[in-house]
Amino acid sequence: MLLILAEIKSIERVSDINQGISLYKEGKFEEALGVFDQLLTKSPQQPLLLLHRGRILSRMGKLDAALEDFDLLIKADNYNADFISDRAVVLHLLKRNGEALSELDRALSLDPNNPYRYSSRAFLKDRIGDLEGAIADYDKAIEMDPEDAISYNNKGLVEEKLGYKERSKKSFDKADNLVGYQPIKKKDTHPQKDSSSPKPASETPEQLKNQPKKQDGGLSFANYWKTVGKVLGNKSTRAEFFDFVQSKLGKKK
C-alpha cells in the first residue's frame, strides 16, 4: 500500500513538472513560477526544479533570484557544464561579463568535445565586442560540427559587422543551404544604385536593424533569452533558432 501511494505521488509530481514546463514554454511565466515554487517547498534542493525555476526567473528579468538558484545548482554539482553555461547567461544579463566569460571558459574545459560550448562563448564574445574572438570560436564550432547552420549564420553576422562582405555572404549561403532556406527573389522595379557609392556614415548597418529593443536602458530580457536559449540548446532546435535569428537579428536576403 505504501509503495502504491509513493508511486501515485511520483506520477503526480511528474505531472506537475510537465505542467510547469508547458506554462513556461507558453510564456506564462508567473503561473510556471508558481508551480515550481510549490514543488520546491517539498524538494528544495532538487536540481531539475531549481534549473527550471532559474530559467523562468531569468525570462522574467528577476536575475538576482535566478542567480541564487544557479548558485545552488553549481554548489551541488560544480562540474555540470550545462548549469555553468546557464549561470553565465544570467551573469551576462547582469552585465558581469568578465565573470560570464570565465564561466563559459570553465564549461568548455569541462566539455571540450561539445561544439555548442564554442558557439555559446562566441555569442557572448560578439555581445561584448570581441568580434575576432567570436569568429575564432564559431570557426572551431563549425570544425567540430560542419552541419551547424546556427554557427554559420551567427558567424556571418559577426563578419558583416567587421565589414567582411564576401566572407559573410559565404557564411550566410552555407547556413541557408544547411537548413534548405531559399530566398524569394523579388522583381527589382527600381533602378540599381551605383554599388561603388559609399554609404553614409550615419546609416544603420544592415545587421543591426530589427535588433531587440532595449527597455529603460537595459536589455530586452524576453527577446534576448529567446536568442541565448537556442544558442545554448541542442541540435534539435537549430532550424527554429535559425528562423528567429533571420527575423530578429537583421540578416537580409
UniProtKB/TrEMBL annotation:
Keyword Transport applies: no
Region (Disordered): 180-219
Intervals holding TPR repeats: 81-114, 115-148
Transmembrane residue ranges: none
Biased composition (Polar residues): 194-210
InterPro entries given in the database record: TPR-like_helical_dom_sf, TPR_rpt, Ycf3
PROSITE patterns assigned to the protein according to its UniProt record, in alphabetical order: TPR
Top-level taxon of origin: Bacteria
Gene3D superfamilies: Tetratricopeptide repeat domain (1.25.40.10)
Keywords: Repeat, TPR repeat
UniProt keyword annotation of Transcription regulation present: no
Alphabetical list of SMART domains matching this protein: TPR
Family matches, as PANTHER family: TETRATRICOPEPTIDE REPEAT PROTEIN 6, UDP-N-ACETYLGLUCOSAMINE--PEPTIDE N-ACETYLGLUCOSAMINYLTRANSFERASE SPINDLY-RELATED
Protein name (record): Tetratricopeptide repeat protein
Species whose genome carries this gene: Echinicola rosea
